[in-house]
Design goal:
Elements: E1 5-6, E2 24-27, E3 30-33, E4 60-63, E5 79-84, H1 92-105, E6 110-115, H2 127-144, E7 151-155, H3 161-170, H4 175-179, H5 182-191, H6 198-212, E8 218-220, H7 226-243, H8 246-250, E9 263-265, H9 300-309, H10 326-339, H11 343-350, H12 355-381, H13 384-412
Parallel strand pairs: 1-4, 5-6, 6-7, 8-9
Antiparallel strand pairs: 2-3, 4-5
Helix pairs in contact: 2-12, 3-6, 3-13, 6-7, 9-12, 10-11, 10-12
Length: 418
């Protein structure tokens, strides 16, 4: 399964979340200004991680918003951080479900997008390929339209505060919360306890660290990831209660909350792109068959062949939202997102098509859409100095934010000042 950190990040939405307060609050040594904005995205209370029902761990992470000083202008942007694991090939589900959404978000929010290489080692992996896959993923971020004048792009392991804060959070994270997570239970049952590393159990704490380091306001998540984010929220509240407020102030700190408690940002459509071979399963890097997904770097003949061979049904015409036709709904949704048309326009255009006609239409649309990304990727990946410079600059900017949060937590937890 392709796991987006902080993502996993999700599909395309131009709406902005509602920020609940216009007051200035103090969190983790930062002054954070909340600005009111209209939004169609509800900010509902998430279910507790203590309940295992429907709990799904995702090794990808979406992340945070920076804290702001009191002297900052009133137009301070809220922060969103998100990332994708450098395992397997970036596919259409990653792109439509997360990365393309970042392009919209970077125009409105203070954004940090990273490659979550530390999450990539929770399961067996190829050490010879990790570095290359990390660079490939970064190049695809840029090729898809992430603008480094608006967003920072960096590698997770290049900011050491991620691992340090994870260890501090681990000291207060109840084992019971982690044991109840569905993904750990499923993976360990399949592989056997002797073949599963501790990292698979504790990686949700690293994900929480990824988010909380940056004083996130919002985390882009899919409907299936809301409970995963709740673990992060619960850990933030737990640390704030145990070490924040007057306790922190007595140790020479500013007092108040150490972490901002992030809210989910859930796009209204397209957050889940399903497999080409099973319309009821999410498109995944880890699926055994490459025919189940469209990789962003697939050549045009491969794309055409995958669409030609994808699973269909025997019903006449094309239609959305028929529960008996999950593959039809999935392929129409992909065409809608790739073409930029409305659901109503696609439904009218395709309602009388047979599968052969529609598959040809979809394949052509995918090839045309992905070709410029593929060309730009080749330009970026061939210029190592340029890519290395982007990642170094992004890591430096991220470290400036992360180190402030980390130092506050060390102080509040009673460590000797460095």
């Amino acid at each position: 399964m392709g796991r987006l950190v902080l993502s996993h990040f999700l599909t395309i939405s131009n709406s902005s979340p509602r920020l609940a307060s216009s007051s200035l609050r103090r969190a983790g040594g930062f002054q954070i200004r909340h600005l009111k904005r209209a939004s169609s995205i509800p900010q509902n209370r998430l279910p507790s991680p203590r309940s295992s029902a429907g709990f799904r761990c995702c090794c990808s992470v979406s992340l945070s918003q920076p804290a702001v000083s009191e002297s900052s202008p009133t137009t301070v942007k809220k922060r969103i951080v998100s990332g994708v694991q450098p395992t397997g090939s970036i596919h259409l589900g990653n792109y439509l479900g997360a990365i393309r959404n970042w392009i919209t978000l970077q125009n409105t929010y203070d954004t940090l997008f990273f490659i979550v290489d530390l999450h990539a080692i929770t399961l067996p992996y190829d050490a010879q390929q990790l570095s290359r896959a990390t660079r490939d993923t970064a190049a695809l971020y840029l090729a898809c339209g992430v603008d480094t004048s608006k967003a920072s792009v960096f590698v997770q392991s290049h900011v050491r505060a991620h691992v340090e804060l994870m260890w501090l959070l681990s000291s207060v994270a109840p084992v019971g919360w982690l044991n109840r997570m569905i993904q750990f239970k499923e993976k360990s049952r399949k592989a056997g306890d002797e073949n599963v590393g501790v990292a698979l159990l504790t990686y949700p704490v690293l994900m929480a660290s990824d988010i909380l380091l940056y004083q996130s306001d919002f985390v882009p998540v899919g409907e299936d990831q809301k409970q995963h984010l709740e673990l992060t929220r619960e850990l933030a509240e737990r640390v704030n209660n145990l070490f924040g407020g007057r306790k922190w102030k007595k140790l020479g700190g500013r007092g108040g909350a150490l972490f901002k408690v992030p809210e989910p940002l859930i796009p209204p459509v397209g957050a889940r792109v399903m497999s080409l071979t099973d319309g009821c399963s999410k498109m995944s890097k880890s699926a055994p068959s490459d025919l189940s997904r469209i990789n962003l770097l697939d050549p045009k003949d491969v794309i055409a062949n995958k669409i030609k061979r994808c699973k269909t049904d025997s019903f006449p015409g094309m239609e959305f939202d028929n529960p008996e036709r999950p593959e039809c709904n999935n392929l129409l949704s992909i065409y809608q997102l790739i073409s930029g048309k409305t659901k109503e326009e696609v439904a009218q255009e395709c309602q009388d098509m047979n599968w052969g006609t529609f598959k040809s239409l979809l394949a052509d649309a995918l090839i045309d859409h992905l070709y410029p990304i593929q060309v730009r990727y080749e330009e970026i990946i061939s210029d190592s100095a340029y890519l290395d410079g982007i990642l170094a600059e992004g890591a430096m900017k991220a470290s400036d934010i992360a180190d402030t949060t980390l130092n506050n937590v060390y102080q509040a937890m009673g460590f000797l000042r460095r």
